[in-house]
Amino acid sequence: DAGVIQSPRHEVTEMGQEVTLRCKPISGHDYLFWYRQTMMRGLELLIYFNNNVPIDDSGMPEDRFSAKMPNASFSTLKIQPSEPRDSAVYFCASSFGWATEAFFGQGTRLTVV
Amino acid sequence: AQSVSQHNHHVILSEAASLELGCNYSYGGTVNLFWYVQYPGQHLQLLLKYFSGDPLVKGIKGFEAEFIKSKFSFNLRKPSVQWSDTAEYFCAVKEAGTASKLTFGTGTRLQVTL
Q1: Between A and B, how many CB-CB pairs are < 8 A?
Q2: Strand pairing of B24-26 and A108-112?
């Protein structure tokens, strides 16, 4: 398996634009997590899904952020409109069940100017 | 809610020195514990994990960690570090037996000098 695949790897966008980050979890994994990493706040869980259903979105910073998982092999994290303070590395991770570790993707480095 | 404290934010060691990174967690129930490593510009990779059994856990690249329940600690150790161990190290905890989220510590940046 190729691991968790995220795209794009880098995204530079202007303030106010919509940004969509994509994630393909490892095949067969039933949990998918979105994390954000910044220097100030470290790694924060934004939202996670189980069997494509959002379970906990308490980490989503505000209504500008939304996440979907239309099927077991694809998830998106959307920011609309984007702001400079959204600049961070966004990681997607997946796991099989609760008894195993999470595998992380390479991350998307988002810069909002 | 769980929380994780990593006391050392930045550690600088010479090659061949021994390493110990502290990790303490706050949670009253049974936990699963993890150490992840993030090499510069790369994603997080699992170093080792503790679910149950022997509290001394051996991971990849010569790392080990010891779970001391009475101290709520899960310190990471390596007897002799290498330059290639330069990275950021994250301790993480989750409630055992559930699909609850991983809570990460703020990370420790390890710099190994030649």
Answers
A1: 42
A2: unpaired
Range of weakest confidence among A68-77, B2-11, B98-107: B98-107
Pairing relation of β-strands B108-113 and B10-14?
A: parallel
Estimate to the nearest angstrom the gap between the alpha carbon of A92 and the chain centroid: 5
Catalogue the E-assigned strands of B52-107.
56-58, 64-68, 73-78, 87-95, 103-104
pLDDT value of residue B10: 95
Average pLDDT over residues B68-75: 95
Average pLDDT, chain B: 92
State how far the Cα of B8 lies from the Cα of B109, in Å rounded to an integer.
8
The string of DSSP codes covering A47-97 is EEEETTEEEE-TT--STTEEEEEEETTEEEEEESS--GGG-EEEEEEEESS
The count of C-alpha atoms lying within 13 angstroms of the C-alpha of A9, restricted to the half-sphere facing its C-beta, is 4
Nearest beta carbon to residue A101 from set B42, B49, B90? B49
For residues B49 and B56, give the distance between their C-alpha atoms in angstroms, rounded to a whole number. 10
Residue of A nearest to B90 (CA): A43
Token pair in block for residue B94: 């989750």
Are the CB atoms for A47 and A25 separated by under 8 Å? Answer: no
